[in-house]
Structures are given as C-alpha cells and as structure tokens.
Write a structure and sequence with these properties.
It contains four helices and no strands. α1 packs across α3 and α2 packs antiparallel against α3.
C-alpha cells in the first residue's frame, strides 16, 4: 500500500480548532461573545456572497474590489471555528455525524430527483 506524505500545512478540524484557540489566547485577548461572533459570521457570509455574486452571478466587480473567494471562505471558517470552540462543539465529530445523517436520509433522494438530471434542463 502506498503511503501518502502529508503536507505540513494541512490541518485537521481538531488542529484548526486548537490553532484558532491558541491565536485567540495569544493575540486576540479573548473570544468575542457568542452573539457577537454569530453576527460577525453573518457579516463574513455576506462578504462571501458578494464575491460569489460578482464571480458567478450577473454582477461585475466594482473598481478596487478583489476576487478573494479563498480569503472570504477562510474568514467564514475562522468565525465558525471560534463559535465551535466557545460552545464546546467538536467540529470533526459534528461533521462526521452530519455526513452519516445525510447519507441515511438522502442516499437515494438526490439520485432520484429529476430536477438534478441534465443539470435541471428539461
């Protein structure tokens, strides 16, 4: 069996949660309140939506706007990790449970959805 070498910059969800927590404690003084972080998350999702609308939708970028999809996704993930840390959620375990739930619930649903055949074309 071939062994795949890991990139030293690859993070598991557990490692990401630890790294964000270490950063907050080292540089951020403390976590913002859960309610503040929830509103910051919505703000970051809005910024991601703006880039998506301009890159994949009908809107165009305004002068000076950046096509920084990766940065906006990372900002969303950062705040989500902060919320997980604050509320005691293990994102690794939660994601595994979500995948299992979706597999049980939807394993045939999407395959049998006529709207998904031919990308929704009639």
């Amino acid at each position: 069996m071939e062994t795949k070498k890991n990139n030293p910059n690859d993070l598991t969800l557990k490692e990401a949660q630890k790294r964000v927590d270490q950063w907050i404690k080292s540089y951020g003084v403390r976590y913002f309140s859960e309610l503040t972080n929830m509103t910051v998350l919505m703000e970051e999702v809005g910024e991601l939506a703006r880039v998506m609308a301009r890159k994949y939708g009908e809107q165009s970028f305004k002068p000076g706007e950046k096509e920084n999809l990766d940065e906006e996704m990372a900002d969303v993930l950062w705040v989500l990790i902060c919320l997980a840390n604050q509320t005691g959620v293990d994102l690794n375990e939660a994601l595994l449970r979500s995948i299992e739930k979706k597999t049980r619930r939807d394993k045939e649903r999407h395959q049998n959805n006529p709207k998904l055949k031919n990308h929704g074309e009639a």
